[in-house]
Amino acid sequence: MTSPISIKVTINGRATSHHVPPRMILAEFLRDQLGLTGTKISCEIQVCGACTVLVDGKPISSCTYLAADIDGREVMTIEGVAEGDSLHPIQQAFVDHNALQCGFCTPGFVMATLALLAENQNPTEDDVAHYLEGNICRCTGYRPIIKAVIDAADRMGTS
Amino acid sequence: MTGMSEERVDAHAKVTGKALYALDLTVSGMLHGHLVRSTRAHATIRSIDVAAALATEGVVAAITADDLGDLFARYGHIVADHPILAIDKVRYYGEPVVLVVADNPYAAADGASHVRVRYADLPVMINPEDALAEGAERIHSEDYEYGDRSFEEAQSTLGDSNLAHVADLEWGDVDGAFASAPHVVESNVTYPMLYAYAMEPYNAVAWFDEGELEVVSTAQHPFQVRSDLARIFSLPLNQVRVRSPLLGGGYGSKSYTKVEPLAAVAAWITGRPVKVATDVDGAIHTTRADGATIRVRSAFADDGAILARDFDITFNTGAYADNGPLVLAKAVNRCYGPYLIPNVRVRGRAVFTNTVPTSSYRGFGAPQGNLAGELNLDQAAEKIGIDPAEIRRRNLVPPGGRHLPGKRGMDADLVGDLELVLDALGWKQDQKLPLRGTGFGCSASDAGAFPVSTATVRLFPDGSVTVLTGSTEMGQGSRTALAQIAARELGIKLDRVRVVQSDTAATPYERTTGASRTTTLTGLAVQRACRDALRKLEEIGAEKMDCTIEEVKTADGVVAGPQGELGYDEAIQWWFGGVQGEITGVGVVRRAGDLKELPPFWEIGMVGVTVTVDRDTGRPTVEHLVTVGDVGHAINPAMVEGQDLGAATQGLGAALFEELIYDGPQLVNPNLVDYRVPRTTDVPKRIDTIIVENADGVGPYGAKGSGEGSLNPIGGAVASAVARAIGVWPNELPLTPERVWRLMQTRQVSDIDS
Amino acid sequence: MSVLPAFDLDRPVSLSEALSLISEEAVPYNGGTELLLAMRAGFLRPDRLVDLKRIPELKRIEVADDQVIIGGGATHDEASGHDGIRATLPVLAETLSKLGNPRVRAAGTLGGNLCFAEPKSDVATVLMALDASVRLLGGSPDGTTTRDVPVAEFIVGPYTTTRTSAEILSQIRIPVDTQSRMTYMKYQTMERPTVGVAVSKSPNRTVAVIGAIGPIPEVFQAATLDDLDPETIAAALDVIEDLTGADDYKRHIAALLIARAIEKVAAG
After folding, report:
1. pTM for this entry
2. How much is the average pLDDT of C69-94?
3. Which among B106, B109, B617 has the least Cβ separation from residue C253?
4. What is the mean pLDDT of chain B?
5. Count of structural domains within chain B
6. Chain-centre distance of CA B70, in angstroms?
7. So what's the pLDDT on residue B754?
8. C33/A61 CB distance under 8 A
């Protein structure tokens, strides 16, 4: 039997503490322990981006990150993005541009977009394509997603 | 309400992470299953040792085929050849052999790692040639129960071989036509094995409740799964409940039964709910799409008229039938293209091999045949000296024409669609630029599967409405499109309609969700259900307003009579004497009337691409993509465009990047690093998604289906575009940079520039 | 979902504590971007993992006129975004800013990348062209040992380095020569690159390093840029055939990139 690790974390603005087995990965912790199933698991080799969360503001593949390693950190998941009942401009842009179909990749894309726009408030379509190259969508053909991100940057810039 | 790009009804839930998929489900007391998969491609099982697995802390059971007692331990909707867990032998590397069940996923995985299976090797056949060679070991040597009589009849002709299915088509005098034709052109092509990569992998949770089986699964066809499960457990259909929540992708790969029997037998044995979820590696080893080799010979007159076509199609269909036989049958129907041809012969064979079983994938046999047929047509155009656009114009079947004898006449203006593609591409036959080429292609698929669909509409006393349908929502937008149809039929606002789907206990029967059929066929069922409900409201209105039913009209949420009107809510409340009760409308679609002729509609594919090729590396880049969606009436135009672009992108995946590769008995690349799918940086710079609405379909308001058409001709279009860019005709997909580079090496460098 | 094997976790807060914990069975890790995947695939089953992320010294980045020192625990993002590195080692900064994807760059470290010695790595190729070394700290009963090993000697085979299980890669030490010119180019069509080529020219050293094409990056030194012949180098390479290319195609691309890199450096 391995020893559980005690962690103190802030998840979507709420501080809590937990005990996690070392082998538990962050995605499992979020989905199975906390019931935050918005973060998805897909490729499990960190190339699809469906599991993207923000740890201390940085995009992380939660499928390849130990739950123990969020100790002392702030984590944001898709559940923490909307502002109460109102969608975040990124989420609204995805809705408006039909930038989703099955939706399984969508939380990951929203989190990646949050990280992108924090780094670059005014990306070109090329910037967006290159940054989001690490997120896979199998449904949309990507163009509506890229348009949504440009539009979101616009809306966030003028607000 | 239709013809408008309404916001998807599930968009909000999906962008906030609130949308629930089967993979997200936790059931109280749930156990977790972890599969032990075969490490042999073809072998008998000598022994299975689960003692160490059972001794692992947290493990509750380690299930093999021997534990399934009197259950009917197989599944398969065409033929029940697929063991739930391997029985005595394994037929492909990765086949499920043991299911370890434990309190948590860790214990299940740890337990599974302790299972020891011993095998005695049998000869391994990965390619159809090996499987059909003289004296080849039979992969299946048992008699199985057939679910579909037409396939059973075909099977009986196959004799003692590894043929899984044979489908032939013939009319006219093919040999005579070839003998006298001025031009004969032959092409041989190879289409790769593919992985659909629905981003949510296969998973299911199952439990028994007082002897009734309940399953929640990421299944496209819950009613088909119900049938398989009912047979396994000898339960009547009404004691098996299969529910599908939102699906994280499907594309056909989640058609029919996959891991549900595993979860169900584990629940049966342990007496507790059990979840079985594959990872991507497991998903790839569950179902893939057919790779094919196709030979086509076509005979032409001097003016480019097609005199005859002769196809030989071989599908590598893997270790079990699943839906493979139907995919082959459709490939046969679709390969020669939407052209009027007086003499046609197609011989199709699906061959069992010791590889992952194949099943449906978007396009359903059309992409494979289309690559051969359209490439061949373009090669012929070059040889004869005719514009490839003109050769198509000359041969495309006109509206009403029957290019597949005995089937529905063409319900689309194909030449009109082609002109739109050519116009968007700026096609000029004589324009030749070095390392730049344009290609385009046409397809027509006998889509819609079989026209059986039912729907119910419930009108509540507050005027809100629920539509019940057994169809599933996998991203294609059924939940929204059906809501739009109901809103339009009932004359109420879209936000007053809810669509509840895919629950075999609570929603009415839907045969399948696939074959691009839902808008057309389920849409018709919803329309009919709405009209049935409105009829009842008219009866109520006539009674309350003391007039005849002919004097009553329903429109815009109101039942209007000669001297007054009632809102739907008022009518219902009056009928039931309070804010209570509900009015139910039922809609049934079956093969009768408008739908007697098959297919219910032709799904059109009409696409074009312009491709540039890097002189030094061979790397192809799609500069421009054009798709035409000839859908009759676009219920939701943005969703149609989304489906066309998504389909074309998957087509580009097969054309440029994707292939599953076997090296010996094993897949080399069962993961998303080594199996390369399209990414944001592969998006063509220019994309035109055009919609054509001629109201020429049998569906609601003249609608026809969408979702696969824009994939089908992509492979051939890209291959022809590359051929025109480099001056060499490819004969296989995907056209990776290396493959293109190799083709370029077969020419002198100077030739390419001229 | 697939799971990691069971292991215990230590989280030291100093280098000396970390050195006292690591061993054959207790493996150090940082971002885990390679290690955790290898564990999930069943290739590695350490009894313990030793988390190095809480050790401040490992994150230190120092830029001086003649040398840049990057802590082994600095992430690709931290290094590529560091003003001093961008000014003095622009090619390294640019390479790090483009590798993998944003999530790998946020979590992965240079130290981890070098220790894992993935043959497809860009980082090793560029650092070899820069004539960089790694500093390895070892714990022993007599105290901490220190040895500096050139990256070219540190990576000895696929997934194989000369780091002992008792050592931590604490720094990457890179000489800075303001008179040197360098470029790095790679060709990539799949998830991993086909070939990466670094060419560097300074008064005392002209070198081409070809990586991602074989088991380890290969270094070719010459007196001048003119003495680097792309075809000869490409023919001499140890090439691994895989899904990113067959032998002849890879050599062709390598020669192409070598020629382009030489031309770019020559043009200054």
Report:
1. 0.97
2. 98
3. B617
4. 96
5. 2
6. 34
7. 42
8. yes
How close, in Å, is residue A50 to chain C by CA atoms?
Answer: 11
Size of interface A-C (CB pairs under 8 A): 82
pLDDT over 90, % of chain B: 95
Chain A residues with CB inside 8 Å of B279's CB?
44
Q: Which of B279, B616, B676 sits opposite C1 (nearest CB)?
A: B279
Chain C touched by A87 (CB under 8 Å): no
Q: Which residue has the tokens 């123990």?
A: A68
Tokens 């394994």 appear where?
A: B90
d(CA B332, CA C100): 43
B577 and B474 assigned to the same domain: yes
Neighbours of chain C (3+ CB pairs under 8 A): A, B
Find the catalytic residue in B210, B708, B732, B738: B708
Interchain pair C8, A65: CB under 8 A: no
Of B544, B574, B595, the domain-final residue: B595
Q: Is the pLDDT of residue B200 over 50?
A: yes
Judge whether residue C65 has pLDDT over 70.
yes
Quick check: B162 and B95 in contact, CB under 8 A? no
CB pairs under 8 A between A and B: 162
Say if B433 falls within a structural domain. Answer: yes
Backbone angles phi, psi at C133, to 5 degrees: -125, 165
* Residues in C lying within 8 Å of B, measured between beta carbons: 1-3, 5-6, 187, 189-192, 243, 245-246, 249, 252-253, 256
With CA atoms as reference, report the closest residue to B260 among B302, B307, B207: B207
Same domain, B660 and B692: yes
Residue B550 known to be catalytic: no
Asked if B56 and B111 count as a contact pair (C-beta separation under 8 A), the reply is yes
Whether residue C191 and residue B736 make contact (CB cut-off 8 A), yes or no, is: no
User: Which CATH architecture is the domain A5-80 placed in?
Assistant: Roll (3.10)
Provide the 8-state DSSP code for B579.
Answer: S
Residues B504, B610 within the same domain: no
Contacts of B661 in chain C (CB under 8 A): 243
Same domain, B672 and B706: yes
- Does B687 lie in the same domain as B558? no
Nearest CA of chain A to the CA of B14: how many Å? 5
E strands within chain C?
Answer: 8-10, 26-29, 48-51, 61-63, 67-71, 133-140, 143-150, 155-157, 160-161, 167-175, 181-187, 195-202, 205-211, 218-222
Residue ranges of domains in chain C, CATH in brackets? 54-175 (3.30.465.10), 181-266 (3.30.390.50)
Q: Which domain holds residue B656?
A: 396-447+599-753
Please indicate if any CB of chain C lies within 8 Å of the CB of B123. no
Residue B229 has a pLDDT of 98
Domain spanning A89-155 has what CATH number? Answer: 1.10.150.120
pLDDT value at B566 more than 70: yes
Whether residue B683 is found in the same domain as residue B634: yes
- Residue B192 — left, alpha, or beta (φ > 0 → left; ψ -120 to 50 → alpha)? beta
Confidence of residue B334 (pLDDT cuts 50, 70, 90): very high
Q: Which residues contact C160 (CB under 8 A, 6 or more apart)?
A: C117
pLDDT-based confidence at residue B747 (cuts at 50, 70, 90): confident
Q: Which chains touch A (3 or more CB pairs under 8 A)?
A: B, C
Inter-chain CB proximity A23 and C5 less than 8 Å: yes
Cα(B638)–Cα(B3) distance, integer angstroms: 9
